[in-house]
Input
Amino acid sequence: MKIIIDNKIPLLKGLLESWATVEYVHGDMISNKIIRDADAMIIRTRTHCDADLLKGSPVKFIGTASIGTDHIDLDWCLKNGIFIASAPGCNSGSVMQYLCSALLHLSLKNNIEPCKTTIGIIGVGNVGRKVAAIAEIIGFKVLRNDPPRQRAEGSTEFVPLDELLEASDIVSMHVPLTFKGTDKTYHMADNNFFLKMQENSFFINTARGPVMDEKALLKQLQAGKIRAVVIDVWKDEPDINIDLLNAAEIGTSHIAGYSADGKSTCSMMVVRQLAEYFDLPLKDWKPLQLMEPDNPIIDLSRSEGSDLEVLAKAVMQTYNIERDSNLLKNNPDQFEKLRGDYPNRREFHAYKVKGYNKTVLNKLRTLGFR
Output
């Protein structure tokens, strides 16, 4: 058996060699020629799996180390007997951390009072649920929009999209990328979408680049309709819209879900599905313990400022979103390198907090801090 693996997926080198010939290749370099004798592939979103890539190959298993599958022609794979494995929810904790840092950054920089501010969450799945939860912990009022869930559950928890747009000060996207059907999300955030948003509002996209119309967003941003944007995903990665990057309050290189914890969980989920498919003795495989953060204890006992400022201080010690934004803004041509060589980032549960008042400590522990 032969397996082709994207060389940027962590924790896999040396794992499968006892049962297969393994070749590690950069995601952009995986070609029809390279997979001509491969039985399986483990890829990232950088590898587009369609007939051009797969035709004539013996590949029967594709594992994607991602929550989404929009880079895979699912219909073609189904017709040709190729099993697709993904990792839904694997990086939800990482995106939650990213959004927590983003919301606190926006709040402090723009004098936002969370208790007087409404955030609209569009897409309330594995990620959106957690983002809604942290927003409420911080103190925001949260509106939720998720038509598929609303139809399935008949819940009154959700509101129509137009109502959410008109009532929200901040709008955050957490939908999968789909191109057809009732719930198509391609260019869901178009010019009409932005015009329905409140004046001077904020827009966040950590879903997929094409769920927003970048030209329309830039137009409304420059016109002042949208006050500021946080963007982690882009239409033509890695050749991103530089004008939009420069106009964004925060612009990052598709790394919201790139915590060490998220990537580890993602690798684990894909390997276990590979093991089930090929009957390998790795069905319960777990990666080794992750590297500890440099400063796992956060002492807030001498912290000054408001509760919101102290909360932000603790969160920023685990992940400073502005640092990642500055790296991309200063090096837009290094998008792939910044993403592929992303440093060790641990999620909240890897940190212990002490000191300060019970209100802030309780919020931090509800967020996941120890």
About this structure: The mean pLDDT is 97. The radius of gyration is 21 Å. The longest helix spans residues 260-278. The CA atoms of residues 198 and 220 lie 11 Å apart.
